[in-house]
Amino acid sequence: MTPIHRIDVGGDMPYRIHVGPGLLDDGAALVAHVRGRHVLLASDGNVAPLYAARVIEALAAHSPVRVHTSNIAPGEASKTIDAFAALMHALADFGATRDACVFALGGGVVGDLAGFAAACWMRGIDCVQLPTTLLAMVDSSVGGKTAVDLPQGKNLVGAFHPPRAVFADTTTLRTLPDRELRAGMAEVVKYGAIMDAAFLDWLDANATALLERDDDALAAAIARSCAHKAAIVARDPREQGERALLNFGHTFAHAIEAEQGYAGGGGGLNHGEAVAVGMVLAARLSTALGLADAGHAMRLASLLQAFGLDTTLPSGLDPGALLARMRLDKKAAAGGLRFILWDGPGSARIVPEVPESAVLDVLQ
Ligand code: ADP
Ligand code: ZN
Fold first, then answer.
1. Which of 126, 139, 159, 309 has the largest count of CB atoms under 10 Å?
2. C-alpha 100 – ligand 2 centre gap (Å)
3. Do residue 261 and residue 159 come from a single domain?
């Protein structure tokens, strides 16, 4: 039997992340975080038919709590002010009080949107994250960032609002499309790259089991990733320093995503796929600047390829246009391009004022 992994996130508002199979059916554990009588179960049109009933039944078996469901259309296009407003109205119509709890059942889109709704309703109510994508399990459900997009850019409106708890039920990954699973692996590899060289070796050895969705392997990889994120977030909850290391590969990735117009399911790369390309570009930039040796960058690329991820820049993207996007990245500090660069397996650093010519070279 696969054990349940538990990771504690410290800081002002500590909470626990639970990882393993069958957590969505553990009504007693879920209900422990509901203080009042109202639960708003937010999900999307793909995930709700698969998993909402399990959560509702598990809760009903342990408490007379009232559950109201609210589903958005699947996909990043739903992470809007309008969808946020719809959740506010749902909470109002439901008669939700200050002790109401929002359950976010789905991928990063649902988690960010529902988390932001919880942050704002009556100036902040409890939120429990029930991530169902690998990306959300290892990244967006942990750390308290919540947001919606504007036409002008992603995540421009949001709040820091840590969840009360996170339950990552690995059995939900069995229905996740292959492409989404592989994309999530990019963020898992990221933790090894920036913090844990031994994890890179472990991922290499366990790639087949992970792609076959073996519960033990997935739970171990998710728990180790969450432990790394939890450690960073506890030390730097508001990204004033080292939390920026989690953006390894992301300056390139955000530029690629923006240039492709967040095409996602269509022609363009999704977030994890763009991060895979971005990490290899960042590694090559680090090599060019004399930080990491070229062999490390090549091994990082082959590990990502073992997870079915492409590591070359999609054709048709103009290097100059990508560079212009990077100058606009909201994480770019004044005074030059700031990158997370790589020292080699397990170590990265924040480097301000990287010369644009070096960046252009790796994009050519
Ligand atoms: P992410 O977590 O990558 O940010 P989304 O929230 O957009 O992304 O989820 C990616 C897609 O996968 C969406 O279409 C969503 O409905 C779908 N999805 C999420 N979780 C599951 C699951 N466990 N099984 C099947 N489809 C899922
Ligand atoms: Zn990311």
1. 139
2. 30
3. no
